[in-house]
Amino acid sequence: MTVRVVIVDDQALVRAGFRMVLDSQPDLAVVGEAIDGADALRVLARTEADVVVMDVRMPTMDGVEATRRICRDNPGAPRVLVLTTFDTEADAFAALQAGASGFLLKNVPPEELLAAIRVVAAGDSVVAPSITRRLLDRFADRLGPGPAEDPRLARLTEREREILLLVAQGLSNAEIAARVHVAEATVKTHVGRILAKLRLRDRVQAVVLAYESGLVTPGG
Questions:
Q1: What is the mean pLDDT of residues 146-151?
Q2: Is 76 helix (H, G, I), strand (E, B) or coil?
Q3: Burial of 71: CB neighbours in 10 Å, binned 0-12, 13-18, 19+
Q4: What is the rounded average pLDDT of the residues 144-148?
Q5: Is residue 121 part of a domain?
């Protein structure tokens, strides 16, 4: 299966560099390019894609707003991988809230970019749980106030609620398995059911929901 990728960046040299790296892979194909968020929406309206590699800082429409529009109420939308620099962590966090499946730094080695695109295309997140936790703790004031108990959590069993809490605390599947004394494959199954019940795309969105719902508080 070939993963179809759209590259969104206002710098032509960056797009050309990404295209060269991606087109060197037999399982990846660049099917479109866009110079900003608004252009990306036009490209996606006429192009079928699996992953959008999205810059954050762009004129006309930035990557956060474009991500929000791509992901909003559209379960069949391509997944968005946001690129950022060292000084734009806040933008990356905003993109995660908007529906992105993860983010990378722009100076990431080519092999990591390729691996991240494949991971996102497969339906997972490229943001390590510990990094997600740090970002959420740092930018918790950007979260909406949220109810003390979100009604969506009532869909979960007690075990699934426990697993969600551990995911939100930054534990990996292996660490969760050790904590609750089950196989790692069982944890993966639980996480999949949690995402399905809450209608979430990946564990990044699950962590955001846990914070927004009050299940987890920054530093708690």
A1: 62
A2: coil
A3: buried
A4: 51
A5: yes
